[in-house]
Design a protein that fits this description.
single chain; mainly beta; Methylamine Dehydrogenase, Chain H; four-stranded antiparallel sheet
Length: 155
């Protein structure tokens, strides 16, 4: 069993339950990492989101360079989540009041920007039961549940 942790020192640490005292340390960002998530389709792929406003994808088989870099947020990325229904799609929220939907396999990876909060967007998740449904929350004391057009699965 493998686990990931964010110790607050700009690194991503990968722990193997069989050797818990010897983590793999990835110098992932030039700023504090606030969130990470495992890809539901590839056990070796993780995404990190950081205070440097970027998201980076990491393949554990080669940790020297990120497999993708996503830029567009203008403040710290607070939460990142891979889609449970799309192998190359992820969603991020930021202190820039936005939620962004990305497809890291595309040349232009930003699919959609959702702006419906009046304060820092700080929480995010994707439904496991309703494909394309997102829930987010912000410091404006609201929770929004919605289905962005970029996540609609076509038949």
């Amino acid at each position: 069993v493998t686990h990931a942790s964010l110790p607050g020192d700009q690194t991503l640490r990968i722990w193997d339950a069989k050797a818990p005292r010897v983590p793999v340390v990835i110098p992932a960002h030039q700023a504090e990492i606030l969130s990470c998530d495992w890809c539901k389709y590839d056990q070796n792929l993780l995404v990190t989101g950081a205070v440097d406003c970027s998201l980076k994808g990491w393949d554990l088989r080669n940790i020297r360079q990120p497999v993708f870099n996503l830029f567009g947020h203008t403040y710290a990325v607070r939460r990142v989540k891979f889609s449970p229904f799309h192998a190359t799609v992820l969603v991020s929220c930021s202190y820039d009041f936005t939620v962004r939907i990305w497809d890291f396999s595309k040349v232009d990876p930003l699919l959609e920007t959702v702006e419906h909060h009046t304060e820092f967007t700080c929480g995010l998740d994707l439904s496991l039961h309703h494909p394309g449904q997102v829930a987010d929350c912000a410091w404006d004391e609201t929770v929004k549940i919605y289905s962005p057009s970029s996540l609609v699965i076509s038949a």
